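Hey Z.,

So I finally got round to the adenosine-5'-diphosphate thing we talked about over coffee. Here's the setup:
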Amino acid sequence: MSNENDRLNSQTDREVSSEDAAATVTLTIPCTPEYVGTARLTILGVASRMGFSYDQVEDIRLAVGEACANAIERAKILKVENPLITIRSLVEPSKLTVEVEDHTDNPSGEGIDQDKPAAEIESMNSQELGALLMEILVDEVSVEPASGGGTRVRLVKFANES
Amino acid sequence: MSNENDRLNSQTDREVSSEDAAATVTLTIPCTPEYVGTARLTILGVASRMGFSYDQVEDIRLAVGEACANAIERAKILKVENPLITIRSLVEPSKLTVEVEDHTDNPSGEGIDQDKPAAEIESMNSQELGALLMEILVDEVSVEPASGGGTRVRLVKFANES
Amino acid sequence: METTSMNLKVTPRRVDEETQALDLEGEVDVYTAPLLRQEIMDQVDAGVKHLLVNLNQVEYLDSTGLGILIGGVKRLKEQNGSLKLVGPSARITRIFEITGLNKIFDVYTSEADAVAAAKA
Amino acid sequence: METTSMNLKVTPRRVDEETQALDLEGEVDVYTAPLLRQEIMDQVDAGVKHLLVNLNQVEYLDSTGLGILIGGVKRLKEQNGSLKLVGPSARITRIFEITGLNKIFDVYTSEADAVAAAKA
Ligand SMILES: Nc1ncnc2c1ncn2[C@@H]1O[C@H](COP(=O)(O)OP(=O)(O)O)[C@@H](O)[C@H]1O
Ligand SMILES: Nc1ncnc2c1ncn2[C@@H]1O[C@H](COP(=O)(O)OP(=O)(O)O)[C@@H](O)[C@H]1O
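And the result:
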């Protein structure tokens, strides 16, 4: 019996790991500041299962938070009544795609430049900073009109090679 | 100026508090064990904003986890293909209502008795334990057929009087 | 306000000739419970007499996990051994109390107490 | 693996004649940023010269919060004072670096260093 116990003690610790099958998680929240924290927690739950590093999970969480903040800003400017945001996470073995869709209005403007001098960074408003953060924090950002007259921001983060 | 600073130092700390307007948060996840943790995080986000105590938030989180575990058990037994769970949280000033809806089958059986002797508790299966926990942890539990042939569990937790 | 871990880690650790500990860390839920069941079964199959399940680092325990612990208690009792729980948080102690499971589980604050009780 | 707080708490604290600290705790995001803006404005209105924003207990900072800190830096510079950041986590330091905001913010590891720099 002492031999068997030794065998048990020498076995490596087992950990549960995600099966990483393709799956979709969809969250709909009011397009208001109070609920962005809830969206970030949901994304934390989704991304944590995927073998991303701590910093990568935080990057995704912040990028999604920025996309939500943008949507809230648009809804406020356009005075949309009871606006909603839908956050759709597509989990695949190779990547996480998060679509943040609002039903406000389409954004104008171009992509933004990542190599601004300090003076220009200082004069950026927080929406521009948010767009810059999204560009830096995830691997792909695209913005397109959503069906039904809103904006869909698609964020893609690739999983680690292993 | 030193007077003004004193005034500032003596002011009570300000905290941001929720406005508690009626709002709905909807989450759809695969009806599989991997995603129950994501549902619990979302519920944590919703309930944390509502002035519940730490224990009350944990109670709601566990009750929702149990409702999801039940749905997963049913989907497994019934061999539903690509089953989903929808978790709808209705946030009102006086209470949080969480509906956990699956598209599996309707549950049979009655409500369960909270005053069992030890021998009977020992022989409960985990689904029965889960149902017992829901009954204890939230203020109201109801189970009803969902439109489209599944089960909807409705959990209600009342906010603290204040 | 809340520490969240998405996983469960189970580390077997030998205590003495006839006592084995399982150190759990994380969440025991419908996702991770099969791992706990397997680890307990491995111990039973290896002929362990007293099993201490260390809940000190467990932050979430649902009915699936409770069911597996109850099953473990029964299995070890059948072979004249014991399964004891060590160091649950206030939150998890509360779950044992409200479900009446404190009537079934032997719960100890410290591992030393649990070992002493197993030998008594 | 992650400590989450849903709120922001801002506590003003006097350091010396012309220096005031704001101790932040929690998340600075689109929801809580208006509170931070108000607290900074209150300090500016009260005529504070040097403002130290203590980020030690801040676990999340988004573009809304960054925008308000940038605004604070500008306002205090206008009145020949300063706004300095103290004790950001590795995570938040990284955010400053990748955005280039480390070129704009004066960041110090300890409050003592920030006070000394303000007097220099
Ligand atoms: N939803 C969005 N996702 C990504 N980038 C966006 C989004 N909305 C706006 N932007 C970007 O943010 C920047 C600022 O946008 P905006 O505040 O509308 O300023 P402007 O209209 O003056 O360019 C623009 O460069 C735009 O490309
Ligand atoms: N989704 C559910 N929500 C609440 N209680 C449920 C649910 N499903 C089953 N139950 C309860 O759990 C108990 C056990 O259910 P089940 O495992 O189906 O056992 P049985 O069919 O043998 O009664 C029953 O008392 C039933 O009322």
